[in-house]
Amino acid sequence: MPCVKEFKRLSSLFLAILSFFTFQGARCELLVSPAGPSLVNALAGENVTLAVSFSGAPDPVVSWFKGVLNIATWTINSSADPPVAATFSSVIRIDKQSANLTFFNVPLNYTSDYTIEMVKSGMSKASTTFTLKIFEYIQSLTLSSQPGLIKEGTENFTLQHSMLQGVFEQQMWFFNGIEIKNSSHYLVKTQANSLVILRPNRNDTGEYAVLLTNPFRNATASQNVSVQYGPNEPTLEAHPLQTFYLAGDSLNLSCQANGFPQPISEWVFGGNIISLKGVLNLTNVQTSQGGVYTCRLVNEDTKESRQKNMTLTVYERPVGNPECSVQSVNAINLQYHCEWVGGTPQAQLSFPELSNSSSGAGNFSLTVNASDNLNGKTIQCMAEHPVEHNKCNITASGPVAFLPIMRTTVDSGGKIVVTVRCFSEASPKAVVSWFSSNETVTNGSTYQISSNTSQLMIRHYNVSNFLLQNYTCTCRNPLGSKKREIQLQGPSISDSSLFPNRNGTIVTLTWEVPSMSVVTGFDIQMKGPDLLSKNRNAPLTKSSSNVYRTIQQKPGSARSTDIFFLDPKLTYWFQVIPKARMTNGEPSKSQRIGPGEGLSGPAIAGIAAGIPCSLLFLLLLTGLIYLGVYCIRNKSHQPRYPVPRAVDKVKNSQPNITANNMLKGMLRSPPDYNRLQKTLSEKSVSLPAFIPPPPTRVATTV
Ligand SMILES: *[C@@H]1O[C@H](CO)[C@@H](O)[C@H](O)[C@H]1NC(C)=O
Ligand SMILES: *[C@@H]1O[C@H](CO)[C@@H](O)[C@H](O)[C@H]1NC(C)=O
Ligand SMILES: *[C@@H]1O[C@H](CO)[C@@H](O)[C@H](O)[C@H]1NC(C)=O
Ligand SMILES: *[C@@H]1O[C@H](CO)[C@@H](O)[C@H](O)[C@H]1NC(C)=O
Ligand SMILES: *[C@@H]1O[C@H](CO)[C@@H](O)[C@H](O)[C@H]1NC(C)=O
Ligand SMILES: *[C@@H]1O[C@H](CO)[C@@H](O)[C@H](O)[C@H]1NC(C)=O
Ligand SMILES: *[C@@H]1O[C@H](CO)[C@@H](O)[C@H](O)[C@H]1NC(C)=O
Ligand SMILES: *[C@@H]1O[C@H](CO)[C@@H](O)[C@H](O)[C@H]1NC(C)=O
Ligand SMILES: *[C@@H]1O[C@H](CO)[C@@H](O)[C@H](O)[C@H]1NC(C)=O
Ligand SMILES: *[C@@H]1O[C@H](CO)[C@@H](O)[C@H](O)[C@H]1NC(C)=O
Ligand SMILES: *[C@@H]1O[C@H](CO)[C@@H](O)[C@H](O)[C@H]1NC(C)=O
Ligand SMILES: *[C@@H]1O[C@H](CO)[C@@H](O)[C@H](O)[C@H]1NC(C)=O
């Protein structure tokens, strides 16, 4: 049907028109919007306009608000000026046509939201809001920290910025150029313009900066902050490093510790400050300088202090070497002694062979029972010192076999003085006890025992008194004893010999005395023609005697004499008379010198009778020689005279017994005739003071 189609076409056209008009009706709605940006930044003192554009209805009623506060309300195109509230009138002007809001020389406190509302009766309200921000240039921005002195370990410290004037939009904090964010360590307090650093430590030392920004100008300020700490645990060192030092060494001690500011260190020794520096130089160090050294450290700013000790050990070697000795205690026990004087510390001494539990420092004695197994045993003392290990030896031994020796002199009072010495090598030194017959000898007018007991002096006017009794000496130490009997003899000569020189003008007469014979001097006697005068031309007198006459006197020590100016063509006889003061002993065998004697009648008779006797005599002589050789062999097994020695302190020494030369008298070489005069005359005066006369004869050489 065409009319229905027409109707549908018409009705759709109508709808289109209707809807067009309906759309046109929406154009009459009230509209208002910012003419520029809704956020407006401005510097204080400038002129600022909040410009709007509106449409939708003629002459609406307009209101401006600062926040919620009404600034002005008027109707567009009304004749009157908009009534601006009095508080704003000095700053704000409103253009009544365009509704623009203008601020002249805007102050800071005009920062706010500003809203414009438009109302037209029969239409809905329209509005739009501006945000106005008024800024100032930031001037003289500074940072400060609180507290002024920041110590590691305190609860917190605060950095705060301040400025003379200015408005900022944003603040940023930096530490050594890196932005700081809120964390467990940092607290950025925007409102308080501050940064709090919690539990600061030394790593928080550095440059802090704040950056304040606004749309017009940024400002920054920085401050260096030092977190003070220490002194930390110091390091004490010795250079060169040794476990101990010797007196005289040089070294230095150093003390170092971290801290801020760098701690001040000083060295204290024995309560005195000895160095105000970290390094202490010690040159030629002494043992008194050993001990505890304290390094004291102070942080000058925080007044925190700390100290640490170190021990310096200075040793000194004891003097010389250790010395060992042994002594007798109560004549029963042995006291071994070891000493090493001086030293720091004192040497530790011990006798490990005697006791492994006891020891001593510097000076150590150990008393033990004298037992046989100690006799001749070398005991070692170990001396331990940190600087040196040392030792010494001592050997205790009982007295050895010995021979007494005797000497005779005459004292100023004319008494014969017989000195007997009994000395036996022993360690400890042997003590000698003396007996006459079976009585103990005590000091008195007759007897005197030397302080070391080894010598007995007997004094009498008369030699016979010496022969009344026998004496005994006993050398004793804790390890044993040795005893000898001494039987004194009157003056006597055991042997004599004659040695002429080559041409028979000089003879040397020698003689020996038994070892225990009391002799104070000798008379040298001659029989025959007188001696030649010194010019040797003729005898002084032509006289000749058949009686012995004394031609020389010799002291008790003499054992030889020279007789000069003999006529080789004549015959002489000599003998020696031993004397003990006034008492003469038996003369020596008579010695003859001279050319073969013209045989007298009685002599011939004697010879004739003597021939058979001579054969017997030869036989006897052979037997005697054999006996002699036998005796010599035996003699070498007998105890020998030790050389007397002044051994007062028993020390580590090798026994050095040399056989007494006198005992070898039989092997003695003949006099040297080139040196005869000198040697023999010396011999007769300067024999060693205490060498006993050997009981042997002297070899004979013509
Ligand atoms: C603001 O406007 C006033 C009046 O028109 C004028 O005198 C002044 O110079 C202006 N200030 C600025 C900063 O433009
Ligand atoms: C109001 O503001 C607009 C947009 O900035 C401007 O074009 C217009 O001239 C202003 N009117 C007056 C009277 O200042
Ligand atoms: C802004 O501050 C000034 C003083 O600086 C004051 O006189 C004025 O009333 C204040 N204005 C507003 C809107 O607060
Ligand atoms: C910082 O330390 C002080 C005391 O030293 C304390 O009173 C304060 O609460 C601390 N501040 C913070 C943020 O921890
Ligand atoms: C400081 O920093 C160093 C290295 O970064 C670190 O080894 C040390 O433990 C820190 N000290 C403190 C007290 O945090
Ligand atoms: C201020 O600092 C901000 C952030 O660093 C920067 O984006 C801005 O350009 C700066 N403004 C001026 C005026 O320097
Ligand atoms: C300590 O000794 C060192 C060298 O060992 C020397 O350099 C230093 O100057 C000395 N110090 C003093 C205070 O003598
Ligand atoms: C360090 O030595 C001094 C003096 O000898 C002493 O008084 C102190 O207790 C010692 N200190 C330490 C930590 O050993
Ligand atoms: C001590 O005696 C031992 C043997 O007993 C020997 O080896 C050592 O050299 C002796 N020491 C001294 C100082 O005589
Ligand atoms: C020697 O001892 C015997 C008995 O032991 C005694 O009879 C005698 O009197 C003593 N002799 C002297 C001189 O004391
Ligand atoms: C001395 O001893 C000898 C030998 O033992 C002895 O013959 C003599 O009689 C004694 N003399 C005295 C005075 O006892
Ligand atoms: C005897 O010998 C000695 C040297 O031995 C010599 O000086 C002296 O003149 C000699 N006398 C005679 C008489 O030949």
UniProtKB/TrEMBL annotation:
Protein name: Ig-like domain-containing protein
Sequence ranges assigned to domain Ig-like in this UniProt record: 234-311, 399-489
Keywords linked to the UniProt accession: Glycoprotein, Immunoglobulin domain, Membrane, Repeat, Signal, Transmembrane, Transmembrane helix
Residue intervals passing through the bilayer: 609-632
Gene for this chain: VSIG10L
Entry-linked PROSITE patterns: IG_LIKE
Top-rank taxon, per record: Eukaryota
InterPro entries: CEA_cell_adhesion, FN3_dom, FN3_sf, Ig-like_dom, Ig-like_dom_sf, Ig-like_fold, Ig_I-set, Ig_sub
Signal peptide: 1-28
